[in-house]
Design goal:
Rossmann fold, 24% strand, alpha/beta, binds S-adenosylmethionine, single chain, 201 residues
Length: 201
Amino acid sequence: MIADSDYFVVEAKAGDFLNEVFPIRQDLYLEIGSGKGEFISRYPAHHLDWNFIGMEKSPKRIRNCLKKLSQEANPNVRLVCQYADASIVNYFRKESLSGVFIQHPDPWPKRRHHRRRLIQQDFLSALAEVLKPKARIQISTDHKEYAAWIVEQFLQNPHYLSLQDDPMQVLPNLDEHIVTWFEQEQSRLGYHPHFMLYERI
Ligand SMILES: C[S@@+](CC[C@H](N)C(=O)[O-])C[C@H]1O[C@@H](n2cnc3c(N)ncnc32)[C@H](O)[C@@H]1O
């Protein structure tokens, strides 16, 4: 049998679209910052008619994810060790992603580090290029100030609308929500997530 690392981990090369790495063509979803792999190992197992890429910058975290994945349960998952930013347009075909999940992106709380935050205008505009119209972006963060920043960044960008009247309210499909390791740890400390849901116009 093929080793898990060879089966699941794919390389991101500009021009070689990640859309092509699955043996079966079906709707493609992206998770950014897969961490220890709770979401990417569990959610896709309930959606075997969709494909999922887990994009994670840290090789250590990719190894954590591999421990949770199995070729039997997760044939529709691939991992890519890649820093997500505006270069995302190089890795996916235009209007090819059906949705994106981002759970607890690094908040970079210090003002001088805000430019390192994932959610900002150049990234949102690049992401809009690879999303299908009506694709959904689901984000959670327990960091109140980053949540307000995220709401503001989406508000400023012409390609998205909030699917929630209150952009920080609880998700409508919370029954499908996967509680990640990070979320569990933070909740124990009293920090509970805000959930945001946007649609590509
Ligand atoms: C706070 S952890 C949350 C992990 C996981 N989503 C969870 O909820 O437990 C943030 C994760 O995102 C990864 N990460 C941060 N910035 C990233 C980026 N720009 N592209 C890809 N991964 C990133 C980090 O390596 C880390 O695994």
